[in-house]
Each structure stands twice: as C-alpha cells, then as structure tokens.
Amino acid sequence: MNVKNFVIESIDEMRNKVTWPKYSSLQNSAVLVLVASLIFALVIGLIDLTFENIMTWFYDLF
C-alpha cells in the first residue's frame, strides 16, 4: 500500500505542484548551455594542442 500511495502522490505533485518553465526560458537555457559547452571544449582543445606541441618540441631535443 505504501508504494501505491507514493506513486499516486508523486504523480499528483508532478501535475499540480511543480512549476514548469516556459518554453522560451527553456530554449534560452539550452542555448546558454550549448554555447558554454562549446567555449569550454575550445579552451580545453587549445590547452591540449599547446601541451602536445610543447611535449613534441621537448622530446625532439633528445
């Protein structure tokens, strides 16, 4: 009986008590996450490329 009540109350809470964001707000958040992820990936890629070039130069010395 407890599991049944939990499921029923969870469904009721999701339908009536949760404040869902507007679609435009959701789009803005998704675009922000996408842009931030791309910037982060570019920064990490540049750091990796720089480190690789430095290590290649260093190993070529020997």
TrEMBL record:
Gene Ontology biological process terms from the UniProt entry: intracellular protein transmembrane transport; protein secretion; protein targeting; protein transport by the Sec complex
Gene3D superfamilies to which the protein is assigned, alphabetical: Preprotein translocase secy subunit
Superkingdom: Bacteria
A single cellular component GO annotation: plasma membrane
Ranges that cross the membrane: 30-51
Molecular function as annotated in GO: protein transmembrane transporter activity
Keywords (A to Z) from UniProt: Cell membrane, Membrane, Protein transport, Translocation, Transmembrane, Transmembrane helix, Transport
Self-association state and partner proteins as the record states: Component of the Sec protein translocase complex. Heterotrimer consisting of SecY, SecE and SecG subunits. The heterotrimers can form oligomers, although 1 heterotrimer is thought to be able to translocate proteins. Interacts with the ribosome. Interacts with SecDF, and other proteins may be involved. Interacts with SecA.
Function: Essential subunit of the Sec protein translocation channel SecYEG. Clamps together the 2 halves of SecY. May contact the channel plug during translocation.
Record NCBIfam families: secE_bact
Descriptive protein name: Protein translocase subunit SecE
Organism: Cyclobacterium qasimii
